[in-house]
Amino acid sequence: MTDTPTETAKPSFRSDVTVELVKHTAGDSDVLWAARVSTAGEQSLDELRKDPDRSQGLINYLMRDRHGSPFEHNSMTFFISAPIFVFREFMRHRVGWSYNEESGRYRELQPVFYIPSESRKLVQQGRPGKYEFVEGTQAQQELTGRVMEDSYRQSYEAYQEMLAAGVAREVARSVLPVGLYSSMYATCNARSLMHFLGLRTQHELAKVPSFPQREIEMVGEKMEEHWAKLMPLTYAAFNANGRIAP
After folding, report:
1. Which phi and psi angles does 61 have, rounded to 5°?
2. Known active-site residue 169
3. What are the φ/ψ torsions at residue 199 (nearest 5 degrees)?
4. Is residue 153 part of an annotated ligand binding site?
5. What's the domain count of the chain?
6. Are the C-beta atoms of 210 and 173 separated by less than 8 Å?
7. 119 is in an annotated binding site
């Protein structure tokens, strides 16, 4: 028995990403508890709050001297919607991360596709390892949008044609491009997130320069906004020490 595809949806186009903090157990106190247990044993939250300057100093010391394990005793789960090519870059980050992505084997994929906004720099100049991106011309911007839309529509029509003929979803999805939006849950701790941000965002305070693809940087920026509110002392120490993960 074959699956019957649902009524064909019209393609839609986005230039943004979605990042939602679904749940967390993350706070600066998690770092402090973990760091002090070796010398002070178990401590209450009230004890940790008695001396905020000392707490900030300890977190800064751990960050500066790269004592990383105390930053692992927390958890953040994000819901992320972004183009598939963003998720392929995400999967390079494996230590301290867990992922579950929507499956094209088990559900019919919806026609939501990525098209760069006008602010997205289109032209790469220079050789690998030493290049920069610059603004494209209006003609290049129009060409990019038109060609991508045409390609997306054709590929999704082919996908729907195969489904209508009874071809399995896991086979039919092969014609879809990496500009298709997917969604996933991504869970990490502060240490793994700091490593991600160090590589996937550009920042004036970073000691080590990074040149991420803009689309994954957009995701990183939104994740960073959530994390900064959860762990402000840790976030301040991360920036003060060159945005290098301990």
Report:
1. -60, -45
2. no
3. -95, -30
4. no
5. 1
6. no
7. no
